[in-house]
Amino acid sequence: MSRIQKIACALSLIILASCLGEKDIASSTPLDIIISLQKTPCYGSCSVYLFQVLNDGSATLTVGGMASDNLNLNLPDGKYLGQLSNSEIEEVVTYAENNGYFDFNEKYDDARVMDLPATISLVEGHKVFNRFEGPNLDGLYSLIESKISGVLWTKTTEN
Question: Which of 74, 98, 106, 146 gets the most CB atoms within 10 Å of its CB?
Answer without folding.
Answer: 146
